[in-house]
Automatic annotation (TrEMBL):
This is Protein-export chaperone SecB. Coiled coil: none annotated. GO terms for biological process: protein tetramerization; protein transport. It comes from Subsaximicrobium wynnwilliamsii. It holds the Pfam family SecB. Belongs to the SecB family.
Length: 131
């Protein structure tokens, strides 16, 4: 089975500069999910939401990455690690570069998102959903 990143889009971005004094601390929150469009048998998507509270601005980004396969998606594939771990790991560097460039081109120091261990991220997500 061949799998390829087909395309990606930022579907929502909200960037607002703080007008008052800078914050003391930065924060970063990431959530992911995956979906399988019913009308396309050989495609699936991975979605990201990122919320950044920088010292000087707030940033929210929502993006979708679409992957295509050379064969129909099976139930076994849907339950595999690829949609939850491998696909987000492939897509995330594109989103990291987007956020870095957006913040830099907006006149701020570039935000370089941390590397994410998507194996641990998926495990943590599964444990929190079980609670």
């Amino acid at each position: 089975m061949k799998i390829q990143l087909d395309n990606w889009k930022v579907i929502n971005v909200n960037f607002s500069s703080l007008k008052d004094e800078p914050r003391e601390d930065n924060s970063f929150d990431l959530s992911t999910g995956h979906f399988f469009p019913k009308e396309i048998d050989k495609s699936f998507g991975v979605g990201f939401e990122i919320e950044i509270k920088d010292k000087f601005f707030d940033l929210f980004v929502e993006a979708i990455f679409m992957f295509k396969l050379d064969e129909d998606i099976t139930e076994e594939f849907k339950l595999s690690n690829f949609p939850k771990i491998n696909a987000p790991a492939i897509a995330f560097p594109f989103l990291r570069a987007y956020v870095s460039n957006l913040t830099l081109q907006s006149g701020f120091d570039p935000v370089i998102l941390p590397s994410i261990n998507f194996v641990q991220f998926a495990k943590d997500k599964q444990e929190s959903e079980a609670e």
